[in-house]
Every structure is written in C-alpha cells, then in structure tokens.
Amino acid sequence: MDCDLTFTISPNNTKKIILMRSSPIADNNEVTGSVSTVEDITDSFLLQNNLESATLRLKNLWQLTKGDSPSIKQVCDVTLEAIAEITKSKYGFYGFMSEDDKDMIIHSWTGETMKGCTIMDKPFIYPIEKAGLWAESVRQRRPLVVNDYLSSDLPKRGFPDGHVQLESLMVIPHFRDGKIHSVAAVANKDFGYDDDDVTRIQGFLGDVQAIIKRVEAETLLKKSEEKYRSLVELMNEGVLVLDSENIVTFVNKKICKILGQEFSEIVGNAFTNFTHASSKEFFLDQQLLRRNSISDPYEMTLVNRAGDEVFVLASPTPLLDDDGQYKGSYEIITDISHIKKIEMQLLQSKKMETIGLLAAGIAHEINTPLQFIIGNTSFIKETTDKLAGLARSMKNIFAGNSFSSPLETLQTLEEMIDELDIEFIAEESPAAINDSIEGLDRISSIVHSVKQFAHPSTDDLKPININEEITNAINISRNEWKHNAEVITQLDTNLPKTLCITSDFSQMVLNLIVNASHSLQNKFIGPEEKGTITITTFYDDHFAGILVADNGLGIPHDIQEKVFSPFFTTKEVGKGTGMGLAIVLKIVEKHRGKIWFESTEGEGTTFYVQLPILSPA
Questions:
Q1: How many CB atoms within 10 Å of residue 143?
Q2: What is the pLDDT of residues 557-570, one digit of tens each?
Q3: Region of residue 611 (left: phi > 0; alpha: psi -120 to 50; beta: else)
Q4: What is d(CA 430, CA 413) in angstroms, rounded to the nearest whole number?
Q5: CB contact at 8 A, 428 and 436
Q6: CA dihedral 126, 128, 134, 138 (to 10 degrees)
Q7: d(Cα 236, Cα 239) in Å, to the nearest integer?
Q8: pLDDT digits (tens, 9 = 90+) for 460-471
Q9: What residues form DSSP beta bridges with 521?
Q10: Per residue in 325-353, pLDDT tens?
C-alpha cells in the first residue's frame, strides 16, 4: 500500500522538510520493490503552519477576550494552551517574574506536564539562580531554543525523580518597560523548534500583553473597590450618596445603624423621608447649594425607626459627570447626638454660671425696691393704725355721750385729727402705695427675667419675641452695667417673631451685653463717667438682625481672630473662662445664622448677629 513519510534534513545547517511518498512494486501479488518520490515541502509546510498558527492565535485571543472579566489564572491557562497548540508541543508552563527579578512564579502548566510529572511536591515559585536550563533564557535575557536537550552544553541541573524527560525546549521571555515580565516555555516538539516558532510565540505574547494589562488593571480596580468598600463599611462615619433628585443610591452600615433601617429600606427612597420636620426645608436648601459647587458642612436632624431625633453633621461633596454636570452629592454623616447633649449641658451650666456671677447684682436690684417697699409698707401700716385708733375713739365718743356739750365734743375730735396730720397722710399715702406697686413690678420683672433665662429648654425651635427677650437680658444684667454705662435700645416694634431656642437666644444676648459692659469698665473708671451700650434690632425678608455696640476700649487687632476661640480670654486668671463668645458663636451656628464684629482700638466694638427668619415646618 502507498505510504507517506515526512522528515527533516539539515544540509549546510539549513532545515528542510521532506515529504517522501512510496508505492509498492508487486509481481504475482508479491512485493518486489517500491517506487518513491521525494519532495521538498518546506515552503508549503511553513505556509500551512503559519496559517494554522494565525488561526490558532485568533481563536485563542477571542477565547481570552470573550469573557467579561477573566482572572490572571484563566488568561495564563488559555495563553499556555494556545502556545502549546501553536507549536505542537507536549509540555509547557507560563508564569511571571517577581518584582525583584529573582523568582519565577508559574501560574499555568499544560495538562500533559502535570500528567507526565509524578513529583508529589510541585513548587510554583522557582528561584532563578537555582533553576536549570530553562532559566538561561532569563539569565541571558533572550529566547532559548534547545532541540537536543541531553547533548546541550548549557548548564543543566538534571531531573528530579519523577520529572518528565525533555528532548527539546523553547523558552521565550517577554519584556515590559525593559524588564522581563513573563516567561513561556514549551518542550518536546516532534520536529524541534526553529526561529519561526520563536517569532510566532513572541507575536502571540505581545497580543496577550494587552489583555494581561487590562486584566491587571481590572484586578487592581476590583481590589481597590473591595478595599474602598471595606473601608467605607468599617468607617465610624456614615456614607451617604444621593442622586440629583435627592434619592439615596448608596449608604454604608453606619447610616443603617444611625437610622435603625435596613439597606434596602433606605436606598431608592428620598432622603427627606428620614429627616426631621424641622430640617426638611433646610436639607433641600443645602442640596441646592451643591449644584453651585458649595460644600460647606452643615448640621441637620434625622429621625430613626423608633422616632427618636438624631443630630448629625454632614460634610458634603458635589458629584459631577464627565461633562461637569451635577449628578448628586456624596456626604459624610457624623452622629453628633452625644456632642449635642454635652453642648446642652454646657449651655445650661454656663447659664447658671452667668446667673451665679450676676447673683450679687440681681440681689441688689431686688433689694433696692424691696427696701423702699418695706419703708412704705411700715409708713402705711403706722398710718392705718392711727386712722383705726381715731375711728375707734370717735365711735366711743359718740356712743358714750361723755362730753357736756357738742362744742366740747368737736374740740376733742379736732385735737385728735390735728394730732394725726391728716393732710400729710392724704398727700403721702398714695405716693407710698404707688412707689410700692412700682417696686413690686420691678422685682416681678427681674424674677421673671431670671426664670426665663435659667429655665432649661429643649432644642425645639419656637417663635419668640426677640425684643422681649432682649429686654429680659437687660433686666438681668442691670447691676453689671448700670454703674458705668447707659443702655440705649432701638428695637424695631414691627420685628416679626423668629424661630429660636428661647434660652439659647437669651444666653447669647446676655453674653454680648456683659462682654460690652466689661469693655466699658476698663475705659470709664470715674463715678461720673459712663459709656453707652446700644442695642438695635431690625429685619428684612430673609433675616432678623441684632446689633450690640459699645464705645469701650475695642479689641486689639492682633487678637481679633481669636475672640471666638474656646477658653481664650484677656481677663486676669479667675475672672473669665473664655467661653462667653465661644458659646455665642455656637448658639448662632445652631440657629443657622451668622455673627461678626467690627472693632477699633480705643473707640469701641459692634457685634452683628443675623438669624434667618424661618417658617414653622
């Protein structure tokens, strides 16, 4: 029967592929010889091989790219399978060099390698300096082709027991940025390896690199995302992401804990569903500011599942799309409920401290009218006793008929009336009564002011009469300023009621008055010298304004930036805590207002306060 035989020859060190076709010569059904033809098929063989190689490269590249996000291991497996298929090799491996170029980290072995190798311990990390012949490619930084492994004069380490026997070997290093990035090795090709094999594999590895870079980038991105998500979930602050319509698109576990809600109960809902009624309008106003790239921190009140208020501080960042258009807000949410409780306790403590500091003055303010009320009351009592005695005497006179004549009776009554000094009584008694009533009103006003100021309150905003609260603060602090100042008020009678926390507002005004009074005390020292404290109120469509001005010493320029800092004071040790203006600032910020001042040394200071005129929710 006919047969074909393909083999290689190397005349003049040039590899030729020869096809010999043989046909038998038969005589009486006996084979007596054969006729053979020999054909050099090198060119057609290489052409066919290149076509098959290109087809295989395209097929395997498509297999690498068809997945959504293959892993490095999957890419390595497919790459090695393709290299083995392209070169028609039985064995192979594919791996990457370590960062320090000292080790080879093998990610993939061909199935035949693993089947043929019976070594139980198959290491995946190989030190280059201890590796055998294949590592010469790395050490020499060039492709290595050995078609007679046993007779090669390159250094070999021998085979461990159970290792497959190598006959031929091709190792291709692939470079990235001047460093060997990966290494592909194949072994035991039937006809040996040549330059075409090297070229084909180098080209294929070049194609694969683009895919590996993409996979590495995706892997890094995935790790980064996982790390980011882990960090976000482990943060002690809440993370809130809103779209342009204020719909929640993401929250971390901390937000779920703050609200007492599940992730699925929050995401997809408008965040206003979780804000307190008093904060809804303010929250929406804040989100409008994000569209103008304004990202100042702000406070708001949320409501958890149990219906409890949760005070939070939001630190927002506007989110923009690729075209720079606003697409939402990223906000870090900090639960400051415990801080709010401490603030409330501090404010209440400061109020009582202020009352304590003013107690002597308040006592004096009450004692002064009380003294003349006592004097007037004694006078009225004495006068009343005398009039009662006169009435009894007159009754006895008329009832007893003890006088001999009417004339004698009249003379006796006249003497008694003259003794009482009726004209004096008639003139002084009404004045004494009026003075006493006025004194009692004064005492009542002071007690009412102290009660209003000292009474603990919640953080609930309610409409208040600003002018009335300012008057109360003036009453309470009278003894603090009356010796060295005149208080002038210019209060707008049409000022609308403004939503405030009553006790906090009173604390703010009182601190500003006391602060102004202390400034005057250091300038107007003599008993006849007095400064002025002018308190003005006004309003427009958006805010109510309060001005507290004095013509005292003013604030030195070099400390003006420190006056609102906690514990900063220019007073002697023991005469000031440095918390007065710091608390004023905190109260103003709590009311979402603004405060600033203008001061000239030696001429005085004016504090300006703006509070938004809010409507009840």
A1: 19
A2: 888 887 777 655 55
A3: beta
A4: 24
A5: no
A6: 130
A7: 9
A8: 678 889 998 898
A9: none
A10: 899 999 999 988 887 777 667 666 666 66
